[in-house]
Write a structure and sequence with these properties.
Blueprint (H helix, E strand, L loop, with lengths): L1 H31 L3 H8 L5 H29 L19 H18 L4 H7 L1 H10 L10 E5 L5 H8 L3 E6 L2 H13 L6 E3 L12 H4 L3 E3 L4 H8 L12 E5 L2 H5 L8 E7 L8 H11 E11 L33 H10 L2 E8 L21 E7 L1
Parallel strand pairs: 1-2, 1-6, 2-5, 6-7
Antiparallel strand pairs: 3-4, 7-9, 8-9
Helix pairs in contact: 1-3, 1-4, 3-8, 4-8
Length: 382
């Protein structure tokens, strides 16, 4: 596990260099390749393209500063000694283009989960789940006795909000990029709005203006520690710090074991179900880890992440064929998913399609809007 984590740390270290090269250096090269009269015109007012690229470089540096902090936190947490910049240790050589995409996406996800400007996306995706929990457990006196599991917890915002309501919540995440970043937000920052983030600066398409492209937000919008201290005053016998934890593992592998059988009163899945190569396994494990009468609250689309997955690579060792690495994949329609949920021992108490479009790290001012009509349901284990 340590080797995987330090590779992800390396992604954070390389964020600055790769972003400067791919985003601004190459654009400068292309800019100067234009006919001289044209690039000179565009370099002058009112376009000032070269000045714009300088401002994008500054935005990259601000984002890279966050990535560097996440790197430092990750190295410390896993007992890896940082090396001087002049040296080139083995762990500094491992980031792939795919890994870098994940690192960039995770930095941008701070906008969705931990900025004031991301509140609309959170309102449309997290609030229905919080409302369902409040409605289902309305008569419960001490909510700290209610155990809630959040698979695919990401950067920890939904988990944090559930904990604030008084529940005992456990998040689960397999991505070390997101685990390291959630740890940085939840445990390392000293105050709200501590850091500046430029979520849209690295893309150049569909902007109405440069000011929109270079929009700055501050993260986190609230200080998690302060908010959890407030949530611990009255109403519960257990401090919020003792009611929230995160596990780092494949959901199916960890929660499909006997230890977690009949453990949770509720499972909340948001933009998670379609991360399954084999959704049957997700449904079975959710049913297994819920107590009798427990609730499954789901909200999200069906953008199947493994739709392009090829057949098994033929490895015979079963330790390489667990969880999301299991052979095979299937993509079901929503109607088929609901039939599957019922066939595996759930009663659907409520189901709806949210017609209000829901974005995911979506720039609200962009000329292109990718919006989902998400499915929202509450099911009870029979």
């Amino acid at each position: 596990m340590k080797s995987v984590t330090v590779y992800d740390c390396n992604d954070c270290r390389q964020y600055r260099k790769t972003a400067h090269y791919n985003v601004t250096h190459r654009r400068r090269q292309n800019f100067y390749a234009l006919p001289t009269a044209e690039w000179q015109m565009l370099a002058a007012p009112p376009f000032n393209i070269l000045d714009i690229l300088d401002r994008v470089d500054d935005a990259i540096d601000a984002n890279a500063s966050i990535a560097s902090d996440i790197l430092s936190t990750g190295l410390t947490a896993f007992g890896v000694e940082p090396e001087p910049e002049s040296r080139s240790g083995v762990w500094r050589q491992k980031a792939t283009p795919s890994d870098m995409d994940k690192a960039r996406s995770t930095i941008r996800q701070l906008y969705r989960d931990w900025s004031a400007e991301g509140s609309d996306e959170r309102r449309l995706t997290y609030e229905p789940v919080l409302d369902d929990l409040s409605s289902c457990f309305e008569g419960t006196g001490d909510k700290s006795r209610i155990k809630v599991l959040v698979p695919g917890a990401g950067l920890g915002r939904l988990m944090f909000e559930i904990c604030k309501l008084g529940y005992d919540v456990e998040g689960n995440e397999i991505s070390y990029h997101q685990l390291l970043t959630s740890n940085w937000v939840l445990n390392q920052l000293k105050e709200g709005e501590q850091r500046e983030l430029y979520p849209f600066a690295l893309t150049f398409s569909n902007h109405l203006s440069r000011e929109n492209q270079l929009k700055k937000v501050k993260v986190p919008d609230v200080h998690p520690g302060t908010e959890l201290e407030r949530a611990s005053v009255g109403g519960t016998n257990v401090h919020a710090f003792q009611r929230m934890n995160m596990t780092a593992a494949d959901f199916v592998v960890l929660y499909g074991d006997d230890v977690h059988k009949d453990t949770f009163h509720a499972v909340a899945t948001v933009f998670f179900l379609d991360t399954a190569p084999n959704v049957v396994r997700y449904v079975e494990v959710i049913h297994r880890c819920l107590r009798e009468g427990g609730l499954w609250i789901n909200l999200g689309p069906l953008l199947w992440h493994f739709e392009e997955k090829g057949p098994s690579d033929g490895k015979n060792d079963r330790k390489y064929q667990q969880g999301i690495a299991e052979p095979g994949s299937i993509e079901l329609t929503l109607n088929e998913v609901m039939l599957l949920v019922q066939s595996k021992g759930f009663h659907i108490e409520r189901q709806e399609i949210k017609n209000e479009g829901v974005g995911y790290i979506q720039d609200p001012a962009s000329m292109m809007q990718n919006l989902y009509q998400v499915s929202h349901w509450v099911a009870r284990k029979m």
